[in-house]
Amino acid sequence: MTPQRTIFAALLAASFAASLSACGGSTQVTPAAQSGSQQKSAALKSLNQQTPLVIAHRGASGYLPEHTWEAFVRAIELGADAIEPDLVSTKDGVLIARHDPNLAYSTDVANRPEFASRKRKMSVDGEQQEGWFASDFTLAEIKTLGGISTDAERPQQFNGLYKIPTLQELIDLVKAKSTAARPILLYPETKNPSFHRALGLPLEEKLAQTLQAAGWMGKEAPIFVQSFEPGSLKRLRQLGVQVKMVQLIDADDVDLSSGKLTYAAPYDRPYDWHLSGDKRGFADMVTPAGLAEIKTYADGIGPWKPYLIPVKGQLGADGKAKDVNGDGKVNWADASMQAPTSLLEDAHKAGLFVHPYTFRNEKRRLTANLNNDPLAEYKQFYQLGVDGLFTDFTDTALQARKDFLSGIGQ
Fold first, then answer.
1. What backbone torsions phi and psi does residue 338 show, to the nearest 5 degrees?
2. Where are the alpha helices (DSSP H) in 108-229?
3. Which end of the chain, N or C, is less surrounded by CB atoms within 10 Å?
């Protein structure tokens, strides 16, 4: 079976929880010994030993402005197994692909004089922001805007050229591009769902209606739905949506002196927990009890990758992380990956697949022990046994997966 067909079979499985004791985190993945001219295959450590998915984070966002039609098409052309849009709502209730309700971050709206009067301040999940918000624009107005790159190190020549797609347009794209030999998945996130609900623009109802019309309501549908807010996923279940769902798990930052994750609002807990007075945080989700609770409403978790493999800097005489490479900054490029936590194994034991985020190629995002080689980072996580991962660079992730599978005789 080819890797793509293996992926397809995994996605159509009736339950991700089957046979966990036989294929969970305890299976070892090491290069198989040579026997004559043939290499024996080693078992994958992923859930049910399936080939890990490559999920194109916001499309081919390492190369083209994120969340644009062209970025999603390019990701498919590069070979992505899934394309991942974040969903926000327009004023007229249409779900569009944007990472933030604030259009100032990823569009050319600031350069559009006809919309200058729309600039205002809003509180988004408790964070005061100033800009232009999608909920103040109709879809027709949104369609006049162009996407821009959100990373100064990435190509800027495409800024303003490409338009913002709707959820329906992306469903149509996936259906048009998928074949029996190469299925393509859609992996949307309900973005800031409590914020939208307070505006009278609930994401879940509109998403459920769209999936119903697409015939994508069951577990076999070629879609995953993800959210940082448990209430959003639970609401979708109440609306009859039975597709594969993923609980995202965030943190604010990493303390490079200790290697520990730090938590500050709004990245300390799901915002719906904050609104309800629930004092627990994202850190509580990664305990065995937290994972068991997630399993009651979701099929997998999407943790920030340091939850799986922590990073830590070198300490100076003052006990603080050092600027090892002398660039005047102390960041991941001065740190090294540490021993993995038990989270992946714990999640697999709970019957949850694991899709960490986000893998990128820029040197400042790679720890020093990787020697500026992004392939090496992917291979560490494939070796650990992730079931998929989010990447801004689909081609790099696919090359690393190919090399990894070849190395274990797959």
1. -105, -175
2. 139-142, 167-177, 193-198, 203-214
3. N
Tokens 């996923």 correspond to 233
Per-residue confidence of the chain (410 residues) as pLDDT tens digits? 444 434 444 443 433 333 323 333 332 333 333 333 345 578 899 999 999 999 999 999 999 999 999 999 999 999 999 999 999 999 999 999 999 999 999 999 999 999 999 999 999 999 999 999 999 999 999 999 999 999 999 999 999 999 999 999 999 999 999 999 999 999 999 999 999 999 999 999 999 999 999 999 999 999 999 999 999 999 999 999 999 999 999 999 999 999 999 999 999 999 999 999 999 999 999 999 999 999 999 999 999 999 999 999 999 999 999 999 999 999 999 999 999 999 999 999 999 999 999 999 999 999 999 999 999 999 999 999 999 999 999 999 999 999 999 999 98
Q: Is the peptide bond before 266 cis (omega within 30 degrees of 0)?
A: yes
Give, to the nearest 10 degrees, the angle between helix 203-214 and helix 167-177: 30
So where are the chain's domains? 3-11+47-407
> d(Cα 261, Cα 282) in Å, to the nearest integer?
11
Structure tokens at 94: 């249409």
- Name the one residue in this structure whose structure tokens are 């971050």: 105
Copy the structure tokens of residue 276. Answer: 């309800």
DSSP 284-348: HHTSHHHHHHHTTT-SEEEEBGGGTS-EEE-B-TTSSB--TT-SS--SGGGEEE----SHHHHHH
Burial of 220 (0-12, 13-18, 19+ CB in 10 A): middle
Q: What are phi and psi of 87, to 5 degrees?
A: -115, 125
On the question of a cis peptide bond just before residue 287, with omega within 30 degrees of 0, the verdict is no
Supply the pTM of this predicted model. 0.90
CATH of 3-11+47-407, one of 3.20.20.190, 3.30.70.270, 3.40.50.720, 3.40.50.410: 3.20.20.190
